[in-house]
Amino acid sequence: MTTAVSFQNVSRHFGAVRAVDDVTLDIAPGEFFAMLGPSGSGKTTCLRLIAGFEQPSSGHIEIFGTTAEGLPPYRRNVNTVFQDYALFPHMSILDNVAYGLMVKGVARAAREAKALDALDLVELKGFEGRRPSQLSGGQRQRVALARALVNEPKVLLLDEPLGALDLKLREQMQVELKTLQRNLGITFVFVTHDQGEALSMADRVAIFNNGKIVQVGAPQEIYERPRTRFVADFVGSSNVLPPDFAGKTGAPARWMSLRPEKITIAVGGTPAKAHSVAAKVTSVHYQGAVTRVNTDAGGQAIAVAAPSSFGLIAIGDEVTLSWPADALHAMEDEA
Predict the structure, then answer these.
(1) How distant is the alpha carbon of residue 208 from its chain centre?
(2) 168 contact partners, CB below 8 Å, separation of at least 6
(3) How far apart are CA 48 and CA 54, in angstroms?
(4) pLDDT tens, position by position, 186-245
(5) Structural contact between residues 118 and 170, judged by C-beta atoms closer than 8 angstroms
(6) What DSSP element (H or E) covers 46?
(7) DSSP symbol at 328
């Protein structure tokens, strides 16, 4: 079966810096695929390699079965939506969306008709006569989407397109982006450092670190079964328990991931022999639906996400922390 995007042992070096280091990856047609990682991890460079803005130092890239290395951006059936949108301020919204078609030599009537259809797709019908300065941030983001989609790409690349939006609008656009992708059936490759965006929208997520992919999987797999300490620390909030401490709780003496929401906290009490420890509360942070309680269990810091209806817990309280056996997930030794 043809893949939408295939990386085969791809590397990209900038002098001594290995921005992308021997990455092998297949993205399926129609998949919403997220690349997640800290700044400098290689995710944006991979996106630029797909777009043709960078060329690999070694390895092979295919886009729907066509060799990509050496192919200029304008000959690839991909389009990119950038974080800053890059709209022309002196042009109307209609002309902004139709710009790519104009460059391709499409006749005015045909390109304007297609641009109107694209604006309708992102629910901006009636805005075609305005200028970018007359739109909100979310509306400008939709114009950038329409401009990319009007060219009917097989792969749409999104480089942190929601980063400039406030929290509520960003959450709204996450839902709209996922719905749009599902309806269109286009392959979306989404780069972000925001784990919430990746987990909520993507069919699969690749976690990048130091130019390499350290884990690829469905959002639930990435969150519930992190392969390494880095993934556990980076994706969500996790208690990473060292082998000596894990062994004392009845678990195998391995590096373990324990998510804060899996822990039950009780004031006082006596720990059972397995999967529970005595601890002292070091700080309490009310966060609305949950309260984050930081504790010290004999020198091991353990964070708990307790329902805010739980009641009052104060700094200095002696507590018992417990969890089900399957809440612990064993990881590889490397960080």
Answers:
(1) 10
(2) none
(3) 6
(4) 999 999 888 888 998 999 999 999 999 999 999 999 999 999 999 998 998 899 999 989
(5) no
(6) helix 43-51
(7) E
Judge whether 13 and 57 are in contact, CB under 8 Å: yes
Q: What is the rounded CA–CA span in Å between residue 306 and residue 291?
A: 5
Compute the Cα dihedral for 27, 29, 33, 39 and give only its sign: positive
Give the whole-angstrom CA distance, residue 206 versus residue 222. Answer: 9
H or E element in which residue 96 lies: helix 93-103
From residue 230, how far is each of 29, 107, 201 by CA, in Å? 29, 52, 22
Cα–Cα dist 42/262, whole Å: 32
SS3 166: coil
- The residues that bridge with 13 in the sheet, in sequence order, are 18
Please name each of the domains of the chain with its CATH number.
5-233 (3.40.50.300), 241-330 (2.40.50.100)
pTM of the model: 0.87
SS3 326: helix
Which residue from 213, 188, 200, 180 is spatially nearest to 80, judged by alpha carbons? 188
CA angle 83, 153, 64 (to 5 degrees): 115
